[in-house]
């Protein structure tokens, strides 16, 4: 969205907060004429608290989650059976005063890892019983560990190491891509804090060219990431591919006019690397060559709003189409000058041409969740506008359950024939993990 830049992003985030207050105290914006959707529940699990700002991890029939325990300052790692909707185990509560901050969870062999960014500690737990196996300080001193922490709560793994973009120097947003080899960890020390120093795989002499606001991804032993364009809408971000076997840069491309501000901006399908940001791009993942580019809001009077939310949880893909949420609330037109008919908070685009196919006009606030597509229907749980079901091909609204709400930044899960999502009670600050048959 070249024309409006960060003023639009900040405005949209403020509008989200205002819309949240409107929902809690005056829900008059909800449309009574919308068709009703009645979920067919497979199970519902009332959580001990609610999901914090890290994304869960799923594998097989199991769902791994870091919960914030209501009325405490503690969090706990839990394992949930998606067949039965029951807890398998709950790890011992972790109370380090940083209840809101954890990275996502990754799994290697029979071990689970996540980072507590504010302290610069990595925790490792046994997958079978939730026992704490190791605590790793990623630096020789606490200050160095905080320097090395992950910037935006995302770590990735190739099965032998953990990778993340660091927070950089204290007081700045400079960054490096760091690697920690897992074979350097002693898994018999349990509570003892081990000191390990990660290695830098990518940096620049000019820190302005190496700022991470987006999460890296790994595909076929290649690690991809996009840097932040601090001069947006002028300047450029850099799209980088690193060969993890040789630890060398395979290619890097300067992307003019791409902001690099979206959290989960990358998706790989076959030989294509998609960049979903201020501009939409299809890139040859082997060479970095741009195959298709769509600058969606270059002319705001003719193009729909398709710039993704900065905190986008993920991009849905189905049958040659991409689905994701934008930064737009129902009041975005008054803030940006984009005609109201072009304001969408959920969009579907053609995965080959990157052209807009259909969108959902927001009723109230924005959403950073992403839709799950199953048997021709797209399901999404919004921040304020309820559980919504669309015809995945046409975008026709099939139904809404307005009793279901969420914080808007959760990653939804499709497990077999069940759509699994969080339903949040803002009064009790607790959530219910729900599975509905779809």
Walk me through what this model shows.
It is built from three helices and 34 strands. The longest helix is centred in the first third of the chain and has 21 residues, at 5-25. 8% of the residues lie in helices and 39% in strands. With 438 residues, it is mainly beta. The strands form eight sheets. Strands 2, 3, 4, 5 and 6 form a five-stranded antiparallel beta sheet that branches. Strands 7-8-9-10-14 form a five-stranded mixed beta sheet. Strands 1-34-33-32 form a four-stranded antiparallel beta sheet, with no helix packed on it. The two termini are 35 Å apart. The chain has helices at 5-25, 142-148, 332-336; strands at residues 41-46, 49-51, 57-59, 62-69, 75-81, 86-90, 106-108, 111-116, 121-126, 132-137, 156-157, 161-165, 177-181, 193-195, 199-202, 217-219, 222-226, 236-243, 248-256, 266-269, 272-276, 280-284, 290-294, 316-318, 321-325, 346-350, 356-360, 372-374, 377-381, 387-391, 397-401, 413-415, 418-425, 430-437.
């Amino acid at each position: 969205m070249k024309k409006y830049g960060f003023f639009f992003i900040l405005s949209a985030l403020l509008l989200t907060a205002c819309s949240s207050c409107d929902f809690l105290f005056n829900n008059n914006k909800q449309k009574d004429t919308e068709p009703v959707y009645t979920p067919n529940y497979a199970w519902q699990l009332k959580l001990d608290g609610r999901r914090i700002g890290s994304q869960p991890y799923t594998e097989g029939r199991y769902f791994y989650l870091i919960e914030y325990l209501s009325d405490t300052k503690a969090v706990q790692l839990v394992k949930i059976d998606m067949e039965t909707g029951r807890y398998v185990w709950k790890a011992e509560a972790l109370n380090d005063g940083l209840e809101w901050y954890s990275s996502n969870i990754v799994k290697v062999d029979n071990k689970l890892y996540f980072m507590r960014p504010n302290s610069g500690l990595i925790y490792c737990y046994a997958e079978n019983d939730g026992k704490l196996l190791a605590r790793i300080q990623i630096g020789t001193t606490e200050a160095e560990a905080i320097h090395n922490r992950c910037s935006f709560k995302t770590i990735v793994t190739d099965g032998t190491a953990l990778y993340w973009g660091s927070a950089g120097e204290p007081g700045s947003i400079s960054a490096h891509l760091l690697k920690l080899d897992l074979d350097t960890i002693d898994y018999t020390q349990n509570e003892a804090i081990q000191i390990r120093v990660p290695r830098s795989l990518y940096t620049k002499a000019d820190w302005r060219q190496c700022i991470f606001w987006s999460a890296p991804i790994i595909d076929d032993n290649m690690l991809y990431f996009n840097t932040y364009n601090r001069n947006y809408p002028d300047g450029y971000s850099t799209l980088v591919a690193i060969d993890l076997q040789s630890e060398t840069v395979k290619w890097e491309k300067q992307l003019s006019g791409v902001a690099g501000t979206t959290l989960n901006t990358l998706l790989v399908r076959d030989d294509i690397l998609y960049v979903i940001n201020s501009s939409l791009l299809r890139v040859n993942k082997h060479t970095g060559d741009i195959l298709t580019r769509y600058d969606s809001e270059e002319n705001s009077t003719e193009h729909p709003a398709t710039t993704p939310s900065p905190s986008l949880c993920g991009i849905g893909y189905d049958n040659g189409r991409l689905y994701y949420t934008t930064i737009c609330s129902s009041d975005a037109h008054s803030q940006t000058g984009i005609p109201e008919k072009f304001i969408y908070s959920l969009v579907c685009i053609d995965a080959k041409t990157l052209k807009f196919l259909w969108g959902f006009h927001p009723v109230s606030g924005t959403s950073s969740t992403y839709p799950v597509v199953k048997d021709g229907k797209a399901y999404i749980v919004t921040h304020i506008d309820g559980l919504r079901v669309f015809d995945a091909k046409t975008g026709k609204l099939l139904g809404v359950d307005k009793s279901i709400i969420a914080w808007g930044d959760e990653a939804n899960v499709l497990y077999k024939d069940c759509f699994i999502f969080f339903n949040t009670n803002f009064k009790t600050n607790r959530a219910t993990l729900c599975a509905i048959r779809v």
